[in-house]
Amino acid sequence: MRVNGNFYRAVNWHVESGGVQWIEQRLLPHRFEQVVTIKAEEVAVAIESMQVRGAPSIGAAAAHGLALAWNEGQERFMEYWLPRFRRTRPTAVNLFHACNVMQLCAESNPQLSRMVECAQAYADGEVSANRCIGEHMAGLLAVGQRQILTHCNAGWLAAVDWGTATAGIYHLAQAGENPFVWVDETRPRLQGARLTAWELSQEGVACRIQADGAAAWMIAQGRVDAIVVGADRIAANGDVANKIGTYALSLAAREHGVPMYVAAPTSTFDAGCPSGSEIPIEQRNENEVLRIDGMDDTNRIQDIRVAAPGVLANNPAFDVTPYANLSGIVCEHGLWHA
Ligand code: MRU
């Protein structure tokens, strides 16, 4: 999608250096920077430290990083590099799908160029899935001044290009409709306020950031026509793990009869996981809750403490929404049924 009118992907192969390039998402919306590396370890660290985040982008970054790992020494690929990448984040199953795809490719003992092609094909597959999801979602969201609520960032930064939850919104906008988006700020890391609102603004889509706690009230007031979110892992019974706060949204949506959709490519489905209770939920560092960073009026990034010294925090990164709370799950093939 576009940044200042130019097209970018969240992560891609950098032909000039023979390396991996990604957008440094931790700097947004204050600074737009791309990072390039030829070292597999730096890609793994970029996933762990959330320079690259969002389930499909994590998978694509791992696929490209594993192509670099192949170049660094094939003898360490199976025993060291695959487990190294599989350990980077626990909840988004796209990571594991991407590692499996690269493992399968490596088993035929290919040239480096074949591993790179494999990673690129993986990322391209995610992008075309997102485009199809967008077409299906645009149909469901219908036309006119639709007020759509989204949580976290399931936009193109999270999904290589187009996004999953945002793909339908972008399709509507490109078709000349005027969707409006309520963007949950999404504490603690503020992916909504920092990333989704920035993305939508770059594409000229009207939006407004709101505190997470405002969402249920706006739903109750009839100010939300539909909710669309992404997913990090979907169990075989349709239970959905997504950013913390999604479950609470589903309760408000059900109570007030507002449709709530999950948009996700098939790489987010985990057929081997029977239900949501088996999905591993990432517990992240408590400093994400206790501290906050942002740009001050002199354009300096400041990191400050929010809570009193010594106070402890709880920081589960994801929750699980039961399938029964949803109006539907939309993948590239259309509406998915459990
Ligand atoms: O912790 P994050 O920022 O990687 O979590 C991202 C989300 O929860 C997204 O909603 C999800 O990955 C869907 S991405 C299209």
Structural features, described:
- The structure is a single chain.
- The strands form five sheets. Strands 8-7-6-9-12-17-18 form a seven-stranded mixed β-sheet, with helices on both faces. Strands 13-10-11-16 form a four-stranded mixed β-sheet, with helices on one face.
- The longest helix is centred in the middle third of the chain and has 30 residues, at 112-141.
- It is built from ten helices and 18 strands.
- The protein folds into two domains: 2-127, Up-down Bundle (Four Helix Bundle (Hemerythrin (Met), subunit A)), CATH 1.20.120.420; 136-336, Rossmann fold.
- 36% of the residues lie in helices and 20% in strands.
- It is globular and about 60 Å long.
- β3 and β4 form a beta hairpin.
- It has helices at 40-48, 55-72, 77-86, 94-106, 112-141, 167-174, 191-202, 215-220, 246-256, 287-290; strands at 2-3, 6-7, 11-14, 19-23, 34-37, 147-150, 180-184, 206-210, 226-229, 233-235, 240-243, 260-263, 269-270, 291-295, 301-305, 318-321, 328-331, 334-336.
- With 338 residues, the protein is of the alpha/beta class.
- It binds 5-S-methyl-1-O-phosphono-5-thio-D-ribulose (MRU).
- The site of 5-S-methyl-1-O-phosphono-5-thio-D-ribulose has 17 residues, from α2 and β11.
- 5-S-methyl-1-O-phosphono-5-thio-D-ribulose (MRU) is lined by residues 53-56, 92, 152, 154, 158-159, 164, 191, 230-232, 242-243, 317.
